[in-house]
Amino acid sequence: MAWEQRARGGRYYIRRYYIRKHWLAGRCVSEYIGAGEDAVLLAGLDAAARRGQRQGRAVRRREDEVEAALDEVTEIMAILTTATLLVAGCHTHRGYFCPSPVSVKSGH
Fold first, then answer.
1. What are 5-23's pLDDT values in tens digits?
2. Distance, CA of 99 to CA of 88 (rounded, Å)
3. Which of 102, 16, 28, 60 is nearest to 7 (CA)?
């Protein structure tokens, strides 16, 4: 989306026209909007939409960073939990931690 200057009707008569550009079937297509108040209004709407898209991308990027940090914390907590249970004398049985048979028999 851009304002373009084009000569019209003569060498010294130059006007600004708002032209939208978008992709259609793998090609860049220019869509002539005009030079009047409608063009100014649509240019403002397009600019607001682009700002919203940029803000949405920034929010998604921040959410991805937070999710990556939470995944890292979750992994560290799983390692610490496993280490704590092993030090406490537990062992794994079919994926679950159980008290060690030695500590159950001895009454500790």
1. 766 666 666 678 899 888 9
2. 9
3. 16
**Tokens 């959410």 appear where?**
63
The residue count of the chain comes to: 108
3-state SS record for the chain: CEEEEEECCCCCCEEEEEEEEEEECCEEEEEEEECCHHHHHHHHHHHHHHHHHHHHHHHHHHHHHHHHHHHHHHHHHHHHHHHHHHHCCEEEECCEEEECHHHHHHCC
AA letter at 73: V
For the chain, domain boundaries: 2-76
Global pTM reads: 0.55
Query: To which residue do tokens 């794994």 refer?
Result: 92
| Gap between the Cα atoms of 86 and 41, Å rounded | 67
